Amino acid sequence: MTDASPPAKASALCPAVLHPNITPWVLYLTFTRISLSGFGGTLFWARRKLVDDLKWVTAAEFAEYYGLGQVIPGANVFNMAILLGHRFAGVRGGIGAGLGFFSMPLFVVVGAAVLYQNFGSMPLVHKALTGMFAVVVGLTIANAYQMTTGLPRKWRPWIFTLMTFAAVGALRWPLAWVMFALAPIAIGLSWRETAALAPEASAGDGGAR
Q: What residue ranges do the domains of the chain occupy?
């Protein structure tokens, strides 16, 4: 597997740029390893591998791709894997990343289901699953903390974060309704801010020339 890092981008949601060192086979192996090591969920391990170890994306880019993966129907991290695969190696990269995410783990899940069906009623198994649940909660909290480092140091993203947490976590409102209500507002404000900064950036580039 290559450790070559693609150049950093200002935004993750930019047009796909193919990277010859990140082939569909490399993507398949990478996401296979992520999914096979995904004890407690794959999000924590995906961020560690892609952001900290391989440095394929920045923390902000990872958060953007994960956010888009949540909006698209389907498994969040699986959607993100396909998006990242397409970014680095086109359609074949998206297919390779998607296959790597579920091909080998499929056998692990089937094996675990068979074992649970045969031994799930044992008290020792219940105690083991209770302990695993505590680990999962810890990983989720740690990953949430790490992902907040990718948020811009501005008040607006934090306002929407707190509003979403309060609506879904505290008030138990349906996630779909909260998303449809807040997402258009957040996107509109972001576009407005980007449009306002575009003339300044153009002026800066003209002055540099």
A: 16-151, 153-200
